[in-house]
Every structure is written in structure tokens, then in C-alpha cells.
Amino acid sequence: MLNFKSWTFAAPLSALLAFGTLSADAADAPALAKKGKPDIQSVGPLAFGPTGVLFVGDPKSATLFAIGVSPTASVPAAAEIKLEGIDRTISSLLGTAASEIVINDIAAQPGTGEVYISVTRGKGPDAQPAIVRVDGAGKVNEVPLDKVDYASVSLNNAPAADAKDKRGNSTRTESITDVAYSDGRVFVAGLSNEEFASKLRAIPFPFQEATAGTSVEIYHGAHGAFETRSPIRTFVPFDIAGKPYILAAYTCTPLVKFPLDSLKPGEKVQGITVAELGNRNKPLDLIVYQKDGRSHLLLANSARGVLKVSTDNIDKETPIKEKVTVEKAGLNQETIANLKGVEQLDKLNDKQAVILVKNEAGFNLESIPLP
Amino acid sequence: MITKTASCRLIVMSLALLVGKSVQPLTKCFADDAPRINLTTKTAQQPATFEAAGLPAAELNRLKSLESTDPVFTNTFAVYVVGDTLDPAVPPVGGSYRVEGLRLVFTPRYPPLAGLKYRAVLRLPEGNKIEQELSLAKLAVAETKPARVEQIYPSGDLLPENHLRFYIHFSQPIERGNAYEHLELLDAAGKPVESAFLELGEELWDPSGRRFTLLLDPGRIKQGLKPREELGPILHSGKKYTLVVKSGWRDIKGRPLAAGFRKSFSVGSVIDEPIDTKRWKFNSPRIGTAEPLVVRFPRPLDHALLERTFSVVDGAGERVSGRVTITDVERRWEFTPDSPWAVGGQQLVVDTVLEDTAGNSIGRAFEVDEQHPITKSVTTETVKFSITFAPESPAAR
After folding, report:
1. ipTM for the complex?
2. Angstroms from A24 CA to nearest CA on chain B
3. What CATH number was assigned to the domain covering residues B35-134?
4. Interchain proximity B202–A44, CB inside 8 Å
């Protein structure tokens, strides 16, 4: 049973959100002004933006990269993806053992049937990043990053981040928990290994540079970070009654909606809980899709499998002050019974999702019909 | 001019004529002509390469004209990782090729892993192929002791019921990827507390890989959330618990910890108040000495944030260098300047992200919901305290 209640995420906006509608498409080359090898030090979440642009979150260097990628020529999308042991395939390609890689995220390039996978090769502090691509024929290749069109923006707006421990090492890191693009902006959720406040940043794309030749952090302390008091695990931009929202699944289980136009400098933002996902459970990944004229959410969870959540009542706004009972109905949900061990998912096309499934032997990459 | 390969073929043909049947393989010819594969490391700085010798000159010339990543190369010379099972679908190791003298050289995109077995396959134009299993010997590293847990913060043995965060410090970098398998919270009877930790796939390590941040599940700390309503809080006031770090956790050299580690603690009441800096107590070091500046807090604060969020600046706003020690179960912060205190406007600057062990920060409690509306918020990002000094010591005059 879902719990429909209001819950306030106190969100003092410590900064200006750089809003504005900016857009870029493949022909709009200045969006990716640099050419060469981006200095990607680690790879976390992936998300596709305007046509041909892949966003790559690099938590180690606290940087968001935008990389130009084009679909593999003359390989049409297959009707089905079913790659058993994708971890072994990837580790072999990277010249290492399956136990020595970590698969971080998957993202399907819209309209191509191709799936990009971010991978960490090695498990120590000097582990190496890699991005691999599964083409329409199911062939797995490493995405060469030596000569690409790219752009980047620093996410490191914490001036104290250079603080050192007794050994002289910097100790603070910020994981990037999810990245999504919507209407000229990239949203980035992060979680620090020290303070609990997580950050959700709205970054206009194309990224902006203030002075020629200098890569400028447009998200300095006072510009562009929106802090909540709980880390966002995964989120998706979503229009409700024609207004843009972010639907975010928190590590402490509520599914919360934020109207984007409420994110204004100096104000507190109240997120409204639209569903709770239950105990012993952590949300892992979230997509939104249309079927039979209705919008649905598909949410992978650590313990409760894959949930299909109806958005029929999502436009309701329960007053924040109202105390609601656990039993009060929220959004209807349904567990997709045949999906077990799903750790990542993305929308492959209008009819299919692609999922990364963990089993005893390793990982499989599969397409499934959208339920 | 007759090449070595051509001369070899000539001899093979002559032999065939002599004995009246085909003589194979070619490797029986000249040792230096024989197709062979090596895994070589020239210097520690250069990546190891797989090298194939014995390809005919014409073939090498053909390959020379190709781009270094042309698929023709992998049809000629491919390197595979040898797994537990022989899987024909496994692709060859990615990398680039070049012809160097009489050898075809494959440089993997990532350095080969010492100790891992690779199978190199060389296909010859005649249709023969040779295969060889190769591996790099594990480098003899200066033997260091296996990693051990050096400290767990908070260092105190009384934690609040809404305690949020532990830091586990190791002596060496630790392997990432399955941290939560090696951690357990036990109650007083030694029974594991169910669903105690916030398990994050990213795992919260510091850049050195020696400090792990462990969060208790905030869904069971915050009031009114389903995990807490159904399972109750993780910690109960008045009870005892033990955080266990199991010895099976491996360091990045693959060795288990020298020993497991147990941190036992008792649980006290909830702390749901913001950090109140008005209750901090400051000493007054003497001008002209390098006496430490000491700040005392009424309750323990977060160890990592105490190290990061405090700085001493001089009258010009420049950071004063010095040494920080944190003692008295994170209730005492001490700063010893590198140079004696000079007269003039020093301040202690504290970033308001500072938290206590339950996630309450300066001016803002951890838990903010409809039962605890936000009555005030801290809009500044730092709090500044003027440092007061005792008169200059007679000895320093």
C-alpha cells in the first residue's frame, strides 16, 4: 500500500539557479566547442541530451561532461537485446576479469537502439573509467574518447573542498547520483561523503564560459545549487498538467515532486511526496513513459523489484500540514512479477525499456516491452 | 633479394620434394623466423605489449597501410582474457596495432593486469594459427602489512538515538564494490540489526580510498517515513550496540584485513537541535606565543567536517597556517599556529555545513518536516568569531 502524504524537504536555495531556455542540437556545434580527449577521471551516471549529446557525470573530478556521440553507421536497431554475461563481455574488452569491473549506469540513445554503459575498470582509488556501447546488432565496443567533440562544466562549488586531512589528502568527494536533461537544462543530483545535504543543480546547456579561454565554474557557491536535506537517489523530469516538474526518488524512500518554477533564489522549496516505496527498499533507477494514452513510471528498487506506478493522481497536491495515515492511498502501483534483480533501466524506445539484471552468474542486458 | 621467409619457404619446398610430402609447420624452419607471440614490458613507464613475430613481409606491408584500429588487425592477431569458462562470444581485448620492424605489436587500451591469463591468437596467411597463453608476473611489491582499521569516528562510546554517520579509517586503500557485505550492526544480544545502513552503489570513499563513510538509513531516522513506521528506529536509547567491520574486507592488493574491528557504543537520547555556536567556549591564547586556540563544544561534532569547515584567518582575511587536533570525543578543536600569534584581527571562520553526528548543522536541525517547521534559516555560508587574546606574555617581550 502506498502512502500519500506531504513531506517537506527543506530546501534553502543557497544560490541562483541559472534558468533560461537554451537548446542545442547536433547541428549546433558550439554546444560542444572542444575537440580532443576529455579528461574524464571517473564515470558515473549517463544521460542523453539534445540529439547526439551524451552527458557523463565524473564524480572524481566533480565535472559534468557533454560528449558528441553518433550512432554506429548502418546498424539498425535490433528487435530485441539479450546479452547474457554483459559484465564478462565488457571486462574482456577492457582486458580484465569480470570481478574487476563495476557497471555504473546505462543509457539508451533515443532513436538508435544503442545502449551506452559507464564502467569502472579496477576497484581501487586509481581505477580507470570506460564507456562502452552496445550497437543495434548487439556488438559491444568501447567508445573511443580520444577525438571527440565535448564540453564540460565543473560541479565543484565548495570552496572548502580543498581541505586536507593529516596526511595532506583532500577528503571530501561528491558522488553524482543521477543526471537528466530537460528543455535546455541538465539536472545533476549529488551526495557528499561528509555533510548530509545533497545538491540538485540545474545547469543550462550549452554550458557557458565567462571569459575566452577560461573554463569557468558557473556554479560557484552563490550561483545555481539547490540544496535539499535528503539525498536524491534517482529522478526524472516530468510534465504535470503542462508544467515541468522533477520527480525524485529519495534514498529514504519517498517519491517526491518538485515544480521547477518554484526553484527560485533565496526561497525554500517544498517537495510533495506522491508515493512511498516501503521499507527494506532503496530506489535504484526511474523512467517515465507513455502507454495507452497515459503516463507511467517504472522504478527499479533494491528489494521490491520493478514497480510500475500510475501517474493518474500525481497532479493532486495534499496540503503540507495535513498529517496523513500510512493507509491513505497514493499513486497506484504494481510490481512487475517477472523482473528480478533489475539494477538499472532506461527507455529504449516507445515500446521497450532496456534493463541491466544481476543474477548469480553476473549481469545480463536485456530489452523488455514497457509494461 | 630473398627474404628470410622466402628462403624458409624454399627450404620447405625443397624438403617436400625430397620426402615427397608436405612439411609443416613453418615453425620448424628457422628459430628467428618462426611465428611466435610474446608479452613484453620494456620499462615500467611503457605499457606492456603483445608482439607477434614471423608474419610474412608482404603481410606486414599490407598491415602497415591500415589504420591502427582496423578490424583486419584483430582477424590476424587477437588477444582474449582467459576466463573460468571458455566463452566464444567474448570479444578480444580492445587496443591499437602497429607494425614495428618485423613484428606486429598490439598495445591494449588498458595495461594488462598482472597475474591475469591472456590468450593470444595469431592467424597466418596460409591458414594456420598459433595460440599462446601469456600472463604478466605479479610485480614483487615491497611487502607491506595488510590493511587494518585505524579508527572509527565518532570516537565516543555514547551516540544519540538518531545517530547518522560513521567514518571508518583504514591504514591502506581498500577495494571498492561490496563494502556493505563487510559491515554489520549488532544489538546487545549479538543479533544483527536489520536494514541498518543506507547502502549506496557508489560507496562513499575519500579520494585516497582509506576512509569509508557509512550512513545509517535516514528513512529509519526521520520521523513519519514508512521504513521507520514499519521497522522502528535503528538505535534505541538506553541500549548497547556494536558496529562490526569484518576481516574479509580486502585491500586493493586483494588481501583481507589484518583483523576485524568492533566498535561498541551505548545509545542516548535524540539530538534534534541545530548546532548552537553561542554555546561554544573559546580560550584566549597569548599574543606573541604559539599557544593553541582551543574551541570546546557541548556535544560531539562530525570529525571530518571539523577538519574541513574550520579555518583561522588574519586581519587581511588570509588563512593562518597551523596544525589542527581534534580530541575529547570530537568536543574539542585545537589549532596551533605555525608562527606566534601577531596582534591584529584574527578570526575563526566556520562553514555552516558543519554537522554533529546526527546531521544537525549550524542553525538547522537535521529533521525538518511539518511537525518542525523551519522557523529560521541560516542564509550566510560562514559564521565568524573574533579571536580574543590574552596579553602578551612577559617571556615573549
Report:
1. 0.78
2. 30
3. 2.60.40
4. yes
Report the CATH architecture of B149-268: Sandwich (2.60)
Best A135, A279, A342 residue to mutate vs chain B (most B CBs within 10 Å): A279
Interface test with B, best of A58, A176, A196, A277 (most B CBs within 10 A): A196
Q: How many CA atoms lie within 13 A of A19 on its CB side?
A: 11
| Neighbour count for residue B311 (Cβ, 10 Å) | 19
**Closest to A316 measured CA to CA, from A20, A5, A49:** A5
Residue A95 CA, chain-centre distance (Å), reads: 28
Q: What is the largest CA-CA distance in chain B?
A: 110
AA identity, residue A15: A
H helices of chain A, in order, are 86-93
Chain segment A150-178, per-residue pLDDT in tens:
999 887 654 344 455 555 557 887 788 88
The pLDDT value given to residue A277 = 67
Domain ranges of chain B: 1-26, 35-134, 149-268, 277-396
Cis? peptide before B154, omega within 30° of 0:
yes
Q: Per residue in A103-131, pLDDT tens?
A: 999 999 998 889 999 999 998 888 999 99
What is the assigned CATH class of domain B277-396?
Answer: mainly beta
DSSP assignment string, B144-186: -PPP-EEEEES-SSEEETT--EEEEEESS-B--S-GGGGEEEE
Tell me the pLDDT tens digit for each residue of A301-346. Answer: 877 788 888 888 787 755 333 433 333 336 777 888 888 889 999 9
Exposure string (b/e) for A204-227, b if CB count within 10 Å is 16 or more?
bbbbeeeeeeeeebbbbeebbbbb
Cα B31–B37–B41 angle (5° rounding)? 115
A147 interface with B at CB cutoff 8 Å = no
In CATH terms, are B149-268 and B277-396 the same topology?
A: yes
Q: Is B81 in contact with A96 (Cβ distance < 8 A)?
A: yes
- Tell me the nearest-neighbour CA distance from A23 into chain B, angstroms: 31
Instruction: Enter the C-alpha cell of residue A50.
Output: 539534445
Instruction: From A5, A2, A1, select the one nearest A322 (Cα to Cα).
Output: A5
Q: What are phi and psi of B124, to 5 degrees?
A: -90, 155
